[in-house]
Amino acid sequence: MAPHKAPDSTRRSDRSRRAIYDAALALVGESGYRRTTIEGIAARAGVGKQTIYRWWPSKAAVLMEAFLDLAARAAEEAAPQAGGADPQAGAAEYGIPDTGDLAADLKLVLRATVDELNDPLMEAPTRALTAEGIVDAKLGAEFVEKLLDPQLALYVTRLRAAQEAGQLRPDADPRIALELLIAPLTHRWLLRTLPLTHAYADTIVDYALGGLSPRS
Length: 216
Hints:
The protein is mostly helical.
């Protein structure tokens, strides 16, 4: 008779945590942030609500961690395509590629951003948390600090490298320059004014770099 093995609590916890992440993201996408509850997340994940309270202090903490995990997984999947991280290294190593062709590098990344924003798995929770972050200053600040700022820092790094290579005006502020790239995408996506496409992303890069190129 085979010896009885004790349940692996680590594996059980990982499965429960993943189920909670998935439940939280699904519910916030379906019902919005305000109508999503700890009880609803627990029921959807098949766990007791005390399990959730043992790991997180609030609904906001659950959703933020779930969304950060989703974003990290998306970055890991995008990294090999963008010439960034080793897929085994995790999202922390992901960066904007530097092939020497700034326009091509930025178009690659903005096209990936378009795909991410159009992905139903990402779109619904991103919209819900973005909308709630506008009215909930604390949640909005956490969203910026934990998700947006690290991503924007990648643009700053790449644009500064381009300045050092003489590809951008030396007096251009990289933080403002990156907004010329990101803001149009966000505006069109958030307000649904027109379709968000790769062609649009390419045009944004061409227009932005036209104004940022060194003056002769």
